[in-house]
Amino acid sequence: MGSIDRMDIANVDLNLLKAFDALYAERHVTRAGRRIGLSQSAMSGALTRLRDLLDDELFVRAPLGMQPTPRADELAGPIFDALRLIRGALRTDGFDPATADQAFTIAMSDYAAFVLLPPLLARLSVDAPHIDVRVCGMLGRDEALDRLDSGEANLAIGFPIDAPARIIVRPLLQEGFICIAREGHPAFAGGASLEAYVAATHLLVSPEGDRSGLVDRRLAALGLERRVSLSLPQFLVAPFVIAKTDIIATLASRVAERFAEIGVGIATHQPPIDLPNWPLVMMWHRRADSHAANAWLRGMIAEVAAAA
Fold first, then answer.
1. E strands within the chain?
2. CATH 1.20.120.1200 matches 4-90
3. pLDDT tens sequence across 247-284
């Protein structure tokens, strides 16, 4: 028997992977064979070949049927995913979201995930109940490009980047800024003043770990400087810090408004400084532009963003 570490994929019959998947699902040789159109003897032969190929018993007889070994448990998920990808790639009858069982990987910033994922998954549960979504992080330009170039991600959603021609960029929504502070914060008593705003201590959300951001650049243009006493890589802990301290934060409007709704004792205020809106964009590799499933998902995300 050969070692799996030295296995040449060219020597692997993909029908054996179908047999493994059926055996894992059915835990019975005859039923597994019926599932993929093989006789009992052919299915038994496939199991013998699988055992020889993988140097493991894979399935052992037990009172409740054929029970998988730990090695079979390890292989089940990857083999299922691989077969699903192959079936999806070979489809010639178009993409039907109601029956499709594909998996998509989306690289997303924290903001994009916070704003778009809940309504997106709600739509998918109705329109495409068998679609799976995996979200991976996206901290900056290089990471977004790497994930799209390698095919690790089908789409990327985040702040605009200087994208090369091979990457297509589509704006999704415009976002502004709102301040949050604990209820009764003195900096906002009777309406916010620029002086009180600058004098307060601030929280900055910066995935890259920066100690300054857009607010600081706008203040600097006015000859002013604020104190950032806390910098965070993501914003989910921000409302709980704000509610218990005199620190204030200037956050994306949709995030700040939802934080104010959760009832932890924070309030929203218009910042006493003119801050520009910024766009959230969706990006994909040009090679996927005409791919039916990718195009459908892009359309779904655009609809969700328009309503966000």
1. 59-62, 65-68, 103-108, 132-137, 155-158, 167-175, 177-182, 201-205, 227-232, 248-252, 266-269, 278-285
2. no
3. 999 999 999 999 888 878 899 999 999 999 999 999 99
